[in-house]
Amino acid sequence: MFKLREEVHHKVDTIRLQFFWRGASDKFKYHMIKWEQLCVPKYHGGVGIINTRILNDALLLKWVWKMLEDKIEDLCSQLLKAKYCKNKPFVTSKGNTGSQFWKGVPAVRYKINFGLTK
Known about the structure:
Blueprint: H1 6-22, H2 35-38, H3 52-69, H4 75-85, H5 100-108
């Protein structure tokens, strides 16, 4: 629900990497492939391990999309707009104050421009 810090992603990746290479043993094993290549989807030649940074951004971008759609029947996005935007357009909101969730939404909002077309 909120933008995770880089330290959290690093700790999660470290645990997953150690499990992938070592399994249940504590014996060191050489890495035969880079972690970035493991996170590539299978249909592109990777192993398909989920990249937590991309997943985190995608989940937050889903909320950005809901806010941009501006559907009246979507009570959650209407509540968030009323609370944090205060009669300003969503695209101009700063996100400096509010909950941890709201601070993360504007942090990834610029990424939605890559997929928008008219």
